[in-house]
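User: quick one, fold this
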Amino acid sequence: MSDARLVAAVAVNVLLTAAQIVGGLVSGSLSLIADALHNLSDAGALALALFARKVGRRPADKLMTFGYARAEVVAALINLTTLVLIGLYLIYEAIDRFLNPRPIEGWIVVAVAGVALVVDLVTAALVQGGAKRSLNIKAAFLHNVSDALASVGVIVAGTLILLYDLYVSDLVVTLIIAAYVLYQGVSLLPRTIRILLGATPDDVEFDEIVAVLRGVEGVRDIHHVHVWSLDEHTRALEAHLVPAEGSIEAFEGLKGRVRTALERFSIRHATLEPCLQDTRGDESRLVPPHPQEEAPHARR
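Assistant:
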């Protein structure tokens, strides 16, 4: 996805946010302001994602030897944390508005929400292409889809106010929007944090990797294993291999077979150290060796 699409998506969301805030203040609708805050978070998320993409393209250097690709993950953490805070703020505002009700102009609510719905759909179409490979863009895409649903809810609330004076519907829609925001933030945060903490990727089983490597021809044992994600799409592994043949020449061939075995886990960056003698007893104080039999779903 081109950067121009991200810039266009940011621009339309900023304009929409301004229109919604003005409409919410004039009409007195809290749900309209809530939807505006959500759209503003989308614009901020897209702007931060754009900045992170530009930083992430920088090549590796002496300071960042693995490169800058993890900048997008940091941006995702900031965006998702902001989403959670916004969701909590909307709940607070809904409770306050329930205790201190104010008049609402239904026609303004319906008109502005209708415009918001169109803009949300346009923005979702702009960023849909990049949502398949980027955590940041995927989050923004899901936000825009939920924004579109929220706009539908605001339209319904405005209609109920016009027809039946059901002002409480505005508060109900606000709480629904807050629930969407919190759900999106909380559901994506664990994956983001795991990447930043260097955890084993979610879709691979640590013990399965160890078992596969132990089954490679020429491997007598394996220990000191570390598996982590350098960024969203790049995985790395470090391991000490005890080869069956105690020579460097034999180990060179063994490395090729191990790297081939790792391709099934999409691990293409592997640092493999030979241990020509089984030194697990010496290393157990620092990194315990992996037992031959362990619980199927246990993770290191």
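User: anything notable?
Assistant: The mean pLDDT is 78.
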